[in-house]
Amino acid sequence: MRFSYVFVVCVFLFNAPLSAQNYPPNPEPGACYIKCPIEEVKEVESVVTTPAYMQYKVVPAVYKTVEERIMVKEASKRLEYVPAVYRDVYDTLLVEEPYSTYTLNQVVTIDTFETFVIEPGYSRFETRPAIDGCNSPVPGDCDVICYVVYPPVTKQIPVKKIVKQPTYMQQRPDNGRYRVVKRQVVQTPATVREIEIPAEYATIQKRVLAQDTRVDSIRVEPVVREEVFLVQDRSNNNSDGYEWRKIECSLLDFNLLPIYYALNSDVLSAKAKAVIDEKVLKLMLKRTEIRVEINSHTDSRSSDDFNLDLSKRRAKGVVDYLVSRGIKRSRLEYHGYGETQLVNHCGNGVNCTDAQHAQNRRTEFRVLPR
Question: Which CA distances in Å does 60 have to 66, 204, 284?
């Protein structure tokens, strides 16, 4: 059984010599150190002696014989000319067109007179002598004005007026000169008759490619052999077999790993894996000298045996996930405690709320010396 030693160094105002007690040299105030035994560490790892490779095999082509009907002489047409058929017709043609004659009627006029206005009529106000016996002292009261109209001044001028307009009348003869002409017209037009000449065929046999040549691949699995490797040799170290490594003090206590499972399940969700990556994986990749302990607990709401097995499976699931991410299994330790380490009073038969039971369903981790 491996024993781990945890040492907390506190530096006070006085500084006692520490080298004689094999303490960490030049410790920092308030810092924590882990004392790890230096021992021969051997690990068994799988070594690929022959890597996997692909073996290829050529599969020959496959043919099949088929019959095919092919044309040996194309179809064509033979053209036969059929002449046109005519008939006689008689046309009466105008050989001299008729012309027109005209009769003229002269204009008829009479002599008369027409009155023209040589000076237009007008009207105006005109004054007259004052009224006799008007004694009004007001000027204008005895004045007399009259509105006088003067007719226009006219003159008679002799003119001619048309009583009948000039006209003309066209006279056309009844007919001109005609001639009867005989001509031939097409009764049935000439045609070209097409006579089909069928194509000629022959049947032949030929080989066609049913499946082309191809290359099949067969994976040859790698040859793996387990080899034992010496990771750390204690004999090459001049110390007393231990070494001190500085570590955050909080990592030496159990830290809650806030991952949650479905009821009675040990399957890690994507969210749970992200928490493990952030809290544990990142730390172990950075501090390759440390080991980590994973502990899982349950509440009391199932049988003791079931809860113990469930907690072990959940803790192992975290370890298996870290191994899949590249952490060596030798750096991991896990335990499942079931319902044996409750953090409150909610044991078997005790009526508690869901929140109180949830306090007991926890997964924790802490750093161990190497």
Answer: 20, 25, 55
